[in-house]
Amino acid sequence: MHNRFDGKVVLITGAGSGLGQASALQIAKEGARLSLVDLNTASLEETKNKVLESVPKADVLLTTADVSDEKAVENYVNQTVQQFGAVDAFFNNAGIEGKQNLTEDFGIEEFQKVINVNLNGIFYGMKHVLKVMKKQGSGSIVNTASVGGIRGVGNQSGYAASKHGVAGLTKNSGIEYGQYGISIKAIAPGAIMTPMVEGSLKQMDPDNWEEAGKEFVKPNPMKRFGKPEEVGYLVAFLLSDQANFINATIIPIDGGQANKY
């Protein structure tokens, strides 16, 4: 395997599970120095242990942070630069689903919570990492949007609104910062079997969520859930120099789901 990240510093939020963890494991195998961020310290430690099982000499920094708090975001960026001297690539991934409800029944506090994490958290991360990358004259950012940032998602107004916002921020910032040698893109995952998706299924049918999952993926052209490691492969490519000319765009990884509806 080519070590596309030899000596490079890769910052990942939401690294304690799901897409963040899978991406960290893949990128570590390719030689990166990792700065991993999550709200859950125990989950972060679990990811670090998995990384070290696979790459015993991996250089890993852990920072517990709430991405909806700009000061905490500024701190995890500063900690990364202090430890490693740069931020070469940034997987701006942390997010939540929020509760499922009709728009009229969506509580304003719940709506704001989803926006604060999924949209404001992405914005804060970009704001502070872009300052570092602009000085470097190089960098790559991958934001996590969603199929729900391309089309509507019933009973998830907060989530869909936040992910549409991520898509807009990605396109706009890619246009602004391409001139500084920085490429910015977003992934739009569909149904990937992560703890967050499992939680969504349990909201749909708490007592029989696995069967609900089988029904959920039937309309998908590939008739299955995606795997976190499949997203990790894509993220690794998009963060690498091989994908530097991919900019200001949203890339679905959804088994064809977005194109079917």
UniProtKB/TrEMBL annotation:
Keywords, sorted A to Z: Oxidoreductase
One Pfam family from the record: adh_short_C2
InterPro entries per UniProt: NAD(P)-bd_dom_sf, SDR_fam
Family under the similarity heading: Belongs to the short-chain dehydrogenases/reductases (SDR) family.
Protein name per Swiss-Prot or TrEMBL: Short chain dehydrogenase
Organism: Oceanobacillus neutriphilus
